[in-house]
Amino acid sequence: MGISLSTAKVLAPAAYGINFLCQMYGMNSKPNMLDIHYRRLAAFSPYPYAIPLFFGGQQLLQTRWIYSLFKEASPEARRAQLEYAPTFVLGNLCIATWMVYWNRDDLKMANVFVMINSLAQLYHVAFRLPPRNSQNNLTHWTAKTFAGIGLLDFVHNGSAAYFDGVAPNTLTKILTPVASLVGLGVSDSIMAGSIAYDLGALAIGQHGDWSAILGGLGAVGAFIAAWKFKRVKMSDENATSRFTVRGVDLPGSDLTVISSDGIKFKVHKKNLECASVTFTDMLEIGSSGSEVTLVEAATVLARVLPFAYPVPIVSRNYSILRIVDARP
Q1: Is the Cα torsion angle 95, 51, 181, 212 positive or negative in sign?
Q2: Each residue of 7-29: pLDDT tens digit?
Q3: How far apart are CA 188 and CA 211, in angstroms?
Q4: Which of 117, 209, 257, 299 is the 20 to 30 A CA-CA neighbour of 6?
């Protein structure tokens, strides 16, 4: 469940700031985070600079995401932000606390906070994020890269806390590729790219055949992520191409526009209202709850309604009648 915008504007920057200060403490105290890393090498210890490199890019995304809370946003973008805000705050506070315990060489306690963050981020990505579109894309990137670094933290801290100095056994070498390929298969391009990065970081941090296995998985992951990136489509992308004389059923639609010949166009009310005052007037005249019946035929609506998508605004001074009159 999300929080209010005013609350998010306070808690998100505060949690981010606390986490940033704790990271500075971790890098500059003695022993520092790198000292503990080398002291507790394990089967899932990554290349030591891979985590701060990923974390640095993720921090830039988080900064941009926080900034967006203070800017005007569409209702859909705002809903995604406020739904994610509690997980964002929890994650930053968990990683801040993790750093304190990590530098105290209390890895088992540190692992508690890593697990809370990683599971919370993965849960939100898997079950709470709305379909990705151009309006909530920033929240998707922020949440999924946070989950991606969380996965690396999860396997790294867990192995270092409980299997310090233990080499990977045969079962680990079998289950890791299976889990990695399943994760890559169910992920979108952002999560797949994050998993591929994690595997590459682990490969560089290990040696021998174990490093080769992880490196091969990382290469496969990078290929899958690139393939998925080329095929990615926002839920509101190319919406105009879906409109036909047989109607349309767009994801997340909240309004059914019915033509004079009974064809249904399931669309988004806000898009129509924002696109043109003419659409607003049409909805007010023919509206009956979540349905509106118009006098125009499906052949006309299939040409007119796409002007409300994918989000660019049709000028309110533009006459819809000119579009209708232009029909063959």
Answers
A1: negative
A2: 999 999 999 999 999 999 988 99
A3: 25
A4: 117
Residue appearing with tokens 């922020």: 142
What does the block give as tokens for 86? Answer: 């509690």
Tokens 């994650």 found at: 91
H runs (alpha helix) in the chain: 5-28, 33-39, 50-69, 75-103, 107-123, 137-162, 170-186, 189-205, 208-231, 269-275, 277-286, 298-304, 320-325
CA dihedral 130, 134, 140, 141 (to 10 degrees): 170
Q: Which long-range contacts (CB under 8 A, 24 or more apart) does 180-186 make?
A: 180/217, 180/221, 181/217, 181/220, 183/151, 184/220, 184/221, 184/224, 184/225, 185/224
Rg of the Cα atoms in the chain: 25
Residue range 113-128, pLDDT digits in tens: 999 999 999 999 999 9
Measured distance between the N- and C-terminal CA atoms of the chain, rounded to whole angstroms: 50
* DSSP-assigned letters across all residues of 154-176: HHHHHHHHHSTTPPP-HHHHHHH
Give me the chain's average pLDDT, please: 87
Q: Are 239 and 309 in contact (CB under 8 A)?
A: yes
pLDDT at 1: 57
pLDDT in tens, 283-296: 666 566 678 888 88
Share above pLDDT 70 across residues of the chain, in percent, rounded to a whole number: 88
Burial label for 169, CB within 10 Å (0-12, 13-18, 19+), is exposed
pLDDT, greater one: 7 or 305:
7
Say if residue 86 is preceded by a cis peptide, omega within 30 of 0: no
